[in-house]
Write a structure and sequence with these properties.
Blueprint lengths: L5 E3 L6 E3 L27 H24 L6
Antiparallel strand pairs: 1-2
Bound molecules: zinc ion (ZN).
């Protein structure tokens, strides 16, 4: 059975080592290879978390704007 020793960068398509976690060419983080031998893009949790915090803050601001600030005015 032939074992893969390389994988392809999903960003710039250069061939990199199977255990590499970062592409030497484009410096992007890469994960383990998929069934096509192309490295998967690792999940960027910090992007999700910061996006969630932004949305929650915006929703809280809108709630404050329409329901709390608007109360008893006039
Ligand atoms: Zn690359």
């Amino acid at each position: 059975m032939l074992t893969e020793t390389t994988k392809k960068c999903p960003y710039c398509s250069v061939t990199i080592g199977i255990n590499d976690t970062e592409c030497f060419s484009c410096k992007n983080k890469v994960g383990p290879p998929n069934q096509y031998g192309i490295a998967e893009k690792p999940t960027d949790w910090w992007s999700y978390i910061s996006a969630f915090i932004l949305i929650a803050a915006f929703a809280g601001f809108m709630y404050w704007l329409f329901f709390i600030k608007g109360k008893g005015g006039g």
